[in-house]
Task: structure prediction
Amino acid sequence: MPRETAPGERRVALTPDAVRRLVRVGVEVVVERGAGASAFVTDAAFQAAGARLGTRPDALGADGVATVKGLAADDLAHVRDGAIVVGLLRPLDEPEALAGLAERGATAVAMELVPRISRAQKMDALSAMSTVAGYRAVLLAAERLPKFFPLLTTAAGTVRPARVLVLGAGVAGLQALATARRLGAVTSAYDVRAAAREQVESVGAAFVELDLGAGDAEDAGGYAKALTEAQLTLQRDQLAALVADVDVVVTTALIPGRPAPLLLTDAAVAALAPGSVVVDLAAPNGGNCAATVPGETVEVGGVSVVGPLDLAADMPLHASDMYGRTVAALVTEFLGDDGRFAVDLEDEILAGAVVTHGGAVVHPRVLALLPEATG
Result:
């Protein structure tokens, strides 16, 4: 496990808990010295868990390399032919970045492409990181909102609770709802998927319905399908009217490999009361809000629009712990009798998550995004 070098990244791919899980099944773990410092994990803690400390080339030259955000171009020279490289590699958003790993003959396993099946739940890194993002999004909103979240009865009178609307009731959205409710807000959510109603209500929020004529808007992987332009127009118009009655909007709508759908138009932002807050978790893919500036917080007509790029990195200790468990689960699942990682592309999990293998890009969805010469 090497230290992460991406700007702003404070997570680490394995924590001592994950190291112990790997060591128990016979895996030798090499950790670059100082790799865990930004996540508040000391070298001594890694050693106590059974890891061996080494240099960056030592870590990069292992049979398998565990990362959070993949490897920089300068690191590839140290990666051995046939190595397994595991990480949140953004293959559908940055497919060209995987070319270097393919050229090195590495098997790149994208943790965000692990299929959502029962057997792979323990490897679901995307859901783990979405949980962190949903939690952090509400804390950011609570910090910026010039109001209390909970109902308060004071000597100076009663303070009404904040109203929080979440757009998109996936893992991040549900965690945002649960966190806002714990802080005392009145919560509601909108999602195009009919199955989301029960999930939203299970965390104490009201489910909002819009009339889009969308039918079943959930794909086989559990994600929302893309709407038609006519449906998107209806959705935007109705959301603009809906947000006028809320104090906080958290948007979470993402379709892997595509720009984030626009949900909140300029008219919707203008409909929000001054002091309101929008936290746009889709900012890395452009944002769900017309006013979002990825990586920045802007104020439009008194409304704060927050466009975070990686909220999970802001809570590195628990985020690293959760992510490391998913990595350890995946590695453990595919250890062969000889103690080595067995790449079986007929296996449903690896067929969905392996992007490069044998010197080529092998994932059909990633191949479709590359120029014909590369494919």
In short: The chain has twelve helices and 16 strands. The chain has two domains: 16-113+316-367, 131-309. The first helix runs from residue 16 to 24. The domain at 16-113+316-367 is CATH 3.40.50.720 (Rossmann fold).
